[in-house]
């Protein structure tokens, strides 16, 4: 798997959720902000330390303190004494010159050059290094220093992609967009970062108030708080300050504490959690997300400035366990801990970032060890075994960036029975009992915890939606409509439900549009795009007035094709929300995806010339950004300019010859130009590059069938079912192809599976009836 090192070396703080217990998050953060601090300025850590010595001393030496620094003899941990490292034919050298640190390695052109290290990134378990370029870019080297002790395997140079040759031109090469500090890393490794990208000159002038994650990164600009403190010290009236002059007050206003009721094995909170300001502040960096505003706004909902991902395939397993490098945000939002009121600081000291107590003892703060740290609970006789460990069982570890361990913060009960049904991992057989089959673990769990299998697990509904299983829509509707399900799960189910069109789906979508959680409402706005114009307008129009910026912007994007039909207050609301959407893209104008989004918007508004300019800009910024080539070629198709579209796609193939989407689009152009031989070659190439994609296999099979190669077409379709056993188009093609070649029995077999998938589709039922009659 190609792991994208999104934010190199992030502090290991427990991530919390984006919404106030998934209820009413829109007002949660604003309720703890002081209006007098709205225009506060940054004062610096030394000013804060004057009054908060204990917190400052705790912060010193933390991961936040060492998030980033200038490269000096004191901060550089790696061996720059003419050390070398060989990686797939490229030998890099690390050396010093005139008191500065250099690496000789392959640059953007693939040639060896000397690059000066400007900054260090993090300090444990690894340290990365930044190179500054004349255009203001800072790029993070993928050659990193293993800062662990030698006996733990550390004190060595290593590559973040050790098993795959990453060459110049690849987005994961250290000079590529995935390793660009200004966009990918800077916000979460410095304080008050401003990217300052200039699209005209394509240069960056990024700046910050402090080079690490300092006090004001979390607490907000402090000048108004300093004013409050000064006035209070002088004995002046400070009643006009509603929240101590803070842009965001992280302490819960309810002042709740945890304690054990008499005879209870689990602690409860003395007062319900009333605000998620702390959780939203942590979520800003400890999430897989996109920043959509150049500067973070403390005290506003997280989704005003950032767009977190949901449990997307490729990022998370179907049951919500971590897969790719996704940090802690969406995981913790799934957890029972979060929904019971647990917050970041309950487990982690907020300034040292260390656990409140070592290892499993941190769990013992709320879960009595007499009840849980015992074989009667975990059924493992060895007291110090992993099976007896709370963390090993409920927070399985995954290593990212080769040596950086991360723990799954969904804190779930291991479910080997679910693993057996949908193929997800479980803590039992993932590491401790890797030599045992899943069925063994499922059988053991059934004996130990007989009621476990009766507990619903949303992974099965999400898995059914991912693979398009029969009646998957019913499970997804139930999940979306269940207020007890975590908001991130309901939002994920909504995105999968978009593939289905029914009255039940529409009813669930309408309810989601008024959900208390903005993540769910954002998903509802996007899913509305797939429905008919009337329903799309009905649902998205209300969301265009949403109090959360990313929600109303998404609604406006969906409404863009219908803009001409709106008037009055509706038109003004959508225009304003569209301005938000454009500003969100312009905040990321240094990335190709932002220009793709702007191009799509311009195309939806009917301005094809502007759309083409945006697509071209995307290609110029990132020559391997495939969607821009595809969309530009499709724009030319709409203008009857297929020859221009063909040239665009050929340019894309030259830049990225292994992109299946480019070959698929080429096949479509060749088909329209009545060049069947080239079309078949292109779609075969696309399908070969992505054999797991049943949609590509289907198009390939159609081309083979059109060329009279029916047997090959059927073989391609049958292989596709191994990856997607309920792909509607593949099943329909197999049923009709087998019918036409005279194999009624095989045709009926596929038609029955299709009818299982589409029981209310009249066309499918008619086909099945026809084939059954033929078989007789």
Task: Walk me through this protein's architecture.
With 776 residues, the chain is of the alpha+beta class. The chain is 43% helix and 9% strand. The protein is built from 35 helices and 17 strands. The strands form five sheets. Strands 1, 2, 3, 4, 5, 6, 7, 8 and 9 form a nine-stranded antiparallel β-sheet that branches. The protein has a two-stranded antiparallel sheet with strand order 10-11. A hairpin with a 4-residue loop joins strand 10 and strand 11. The chain is globular, with a radius of gyration of 28 Å.
Give the SSE map.
Layout: H1 25-28, H2 45-51, H3 53-59, E1 68-70, E2 83-87, E3 90-97, E4 100-106, E5 112-121, E6 126-132, E7 138-140, E8 143-146, E9 156-159, H4 181-184, E10 197-198, E11 203-204, H5 215-219, H6 223-233, E12 258-259, E13 268-269, H7 277-283, E14 289-291, E15 306-308, H8 329-334, H9 336-339, H10 344-347, H11 369-372, H12 375-378, H13 390-394, E16 397-400, E17 404-407, H14 416-422, H15 427-432, H16 438-448, H17 459-467, H18 472-480, H19 487-497, H20 503-512, H21 518-528, H22 533-543, H23 549-559, H24 568-586, H25 592-604, H26 608-621, H27 626-638, H28 642-655, H29 660-672, H30 676-689, H31 694-706, H32 710-723, H33 728-740, H34 744-757, H35 762-775
Antiparallel strand pairs: 1-5, 2-3, 3-4, 4-5, 5-6, 6-7, 6-8, 8-9, 10-11, 12-13, 14-15, 16-17
Helix pairs in contact: 2-3, 14-16, 17-18, 17-19, 18-19, 18-20, 19-21, 21-22, 21-23, 22-23, 23-24, 24-25, 25-26, 25-27, 26-27, 27-28, 27-29, 28-29, 29-30, 30-31, 31-32, 31-33, 32-33, 33-34, 34-35
